[in-house]
Amino acid sequence: MTDDAGAFDAWWGWPPPVLDPAGPYADSVTVLAWALFAMGVVVTLVVVAALYVALAGPARWKARLGGERSIWILGIAFPGVVLIGLLVWGLTLTASLTDAITGDEPRIRVTGHMWWFDVEYLDRQGRVVLRDANELHLPVGQPVVLELRSADVIHSFWVPNLSGKEDMVPGRTNLLKVQADRVGRFGGVCAEYCGGPHALMGFVTVAHGADDYRRWLTGERVATAPADPQAVPGVMPSATRRTPASATVTGLNGLNGQQVFMDSGCAACHRVEGTGANGMSGPDLTHVARRLSLGAGVLPNNRGTLIGWIADSQSIKPGNRMPTYNMLSADELEAIAIWLEQPR
């Protein structure tokens, strides 16, 4: 991977655009936003015109502007009608944001942590069928219900392309419907200040076609980018994808990455399915090789950035809860990274 390609992957979609809806629930929010911007311009022009008349207008206009009738019209009737009209229209327009949940929608549970997102895909009985972190995958053209929770402080879930914001509150589950109408990759952020590296608490939402989504959920290889990756905003060019299947379980130096991982205490915080690593305070690393980014949207995902993150995540995302592992040798870091790259 070239440096240019790495930077391209890392920053594509960041910051997420707030006026580029990719689904019905974001579309109504965008229309309302443009209407408010337009009304703001109209009100500003009226105020500027009144100020000009008051300061430099003809004496007859000044007298009218200061009269009781003008005060009733411009000071009470005009703002009252505008605000009430916008309120009614806005509530009507955004009524779809609280569409009834039918129970047929796929459900995904997203839990906010300081400072990352835990993502669990649920079956119809509410059982977890797949666990991941900092990456949300959706089928195109289908409403999906998100169960939003928090494990510590108040966070806020926001993918501007797909929906409005929804708070993630400790002890409470908030439901949010999202839908993507086109294939692509969309940036998301925590929109509620939650301390420390809040500004580096992001995630990636990937919208798949129905078949690709099914293959992704069942662990099959998802189709690579379209023939022209630039034609679909947010789709990672195939040249930048990692190829974990070619890696070996041991590092290039012969070290066993799993053993180094366990001996270094990583398992106390991280879970890797099928191993003795069952820590729950950090992101699940079972499928880390399939993710597009590391550190909650901070870095593109490749072996070099993975090694760098393990060695010294504090220099990349100061204040995050993962300690620095600068006591590990380069060979040990590489062995862990190669082991984590294995498809599971």
Automatic annotation (TrEMBL):
Subcellular location: Membrane
CDD domains: CuRO_CcO_Caa3_II (cd04213)
Domain Cytochrome oxidase subunit II copper A binding stretches: 103-219
Cytochrome c domain span: 252-344
GO MF term (any one): cytochrome-c oxidase activity
Keywords assigned: Copper, Electron transport, Heme, Iron, Membrane, Metal-binding, Transmembrane, Transmembrane helix, Transport
Superkingdom field: Bacteria
GO cellular component: membrane
Residues passing through the membrane, by range: 31-59, 71-91
Annotated catalysed reactions: 4 Fe(II)-[cytochrome c] + O2 + 8 H(+)(in) = 4 Fe(III)-[cytochrome c] + 2 H2O + 4 H(+)(out)
Record's keyword annotation contains Signal: no
GO BP term, example: ATP synthesis coupled electron transport
Pfam families registered for this protein in UniProt: COX2, Cytochrom_C
Similarity comment text for this entry: Belongs to the cytochrome c oxidase subunit 2 family.
Name of the molecule in the record: C-type cytochrome
Species in which this protein is naturally found: Tsuneonella aeria
Phylogenetic placement of the source organism: Bacteria, Pseudomonadati, Pseudomonadota, Alphaproteobacteria, Sphingomonadales
